[in-house]
Amino acid sequence: MIRELTLTLAAILVAGAAQAADVMRMAVTTSFHNSGLAEKLLPEIAADLDLEVQLLVVGTGQALKLGRQGDVDAILVHARAAEEKFLAEGFGTHRREIMYNDFVVIGPKADPAGVSGAKTAAEALTMIAGAKADFVSRGDDSGTHKKELSLWKTAGQDAGSFGDWYKAVGAGMGASLNAACGMNGYIVSDRASWLNFGNKGDLALLFAGDPVLFNQYAFIPVNPSVHAHAKNDLAMKLEGWLTSPKAAQIINDYKINGEGLFVFNAK
Question: Which neighbouring-strand residues pair with 263?
């Protein structure tokens, strides 16, 4: 079972060299954490930069809130509209794209709603709503939750009007996948979390490939002009490493059962 670390400063995953000369804090999404990629990146960051990066693992909405409050030095999230609002408000210095993957629709192998035959993500969700098949929503203002809501809207559906078949669990990606597994229901997940999820049960990846499911991750340093204590020098040092050829190789080479989880696209 994937352990979820959410919504509290007490839930800090400390990785890398314990005696590193420099320490900074970065809020990251549960989907990034659940992918397992951090376990590959952080030791290399510690070795190359003598920098200990403490991860606060939360949903994108909470990560942006931590940035607004000055509780972290940088964020790594995946909800562009919310990121651009954060920047427009002056809380971040800039947005740097690092890597991407995609969102996918997971559901029972028997696929009672027939979504595996859908041609678009909107059609897949329309089928789920039409069948009133059990569906698990993150319900936590995360990047994945924001994407799911936008997909319902594109499908002409109002998630707020759904019946008992729609279950908002208010949890991270791993816990939400566990809930979907427990009820044998449908869920929108990022591909990396799904591939690294160990409790798949009778669930399967049923729909993917619609361009609207593109999932970009971006790095944003917290603005030191707003929060003077923000360690912008360390954030920039980390950004330089995250956009380096070495980071590109680690990200692109990270696979589970031969399938890549992310594609590096920093420029």
Answer: 100
What local confidence, expressed as pLDDT, does residue 4 receive? Answer: 41
In degrees, rounded to 5, the angle at the alpha carbon of residue 82 between the alpha carbons of residues 76 and 87 is: 75
Q: Taking residues 244-256, what's their average pLDDT?
A: 97
Contact 60, 146 (CB under 8 A): yes
Per-residue pLDDT reduced to its tens digit, 141-170: 999 999 999 999 999 999 999 999 999 999
What is residue 165's DSSP assignment?
A: T
How deeply is 80 buried, as exposed, middle or buried, from its count of CB atoms within 10 A (0-12, 13-18, 19+)?
Answer: middle
Identical fold for domains 12-100+216-264 and 102-213, yes or no, is: yes
Residue 159 DSSP label: G
| CA-based nearest residue to 90, from 71, 118, 76, 70 | 70
Q: Choose the CATH number for 12-100+216-264 among 3.40.50.410, 3.10.20.740, 3.40.190.10, 3.40.50.720.
A: 3.40.190.10
- At 154 the three-state DSSP class reads helix
Q: Say if residues 253 and 245 touch (Cβ distance below 8 Å).
A: no
pTM of this structure: 0.88
Confidence at residue 8, expressed as pLDDT on a 0 to 100 scale: 35
| Beta-carbon-side half-sphere exposure of residue 63 (alpha carbons within 13 Å) | 34
- 10 Å Cβ neighbour count for 226? 15
Find all residues with CB under 8 Å of 117, minimum gap 6, and list them. Answer: none
Dump the DSSP string for 9-49. TT-EEE-S-TT-SEEEEEEEEHHHHHHTTHHHHHHHHHHHH
Q: Are strands 22-29 and 74-77 parallel, antiparallel or unpaired?
A: parallel
Residue 58: what residue type? V
Calculate the CA 20 to chain-centre distance: 27
Task: Calculate mean pLDDT across residues 47-56.
Answer: 98
- H-run or E-run covering 168: strand 166-168
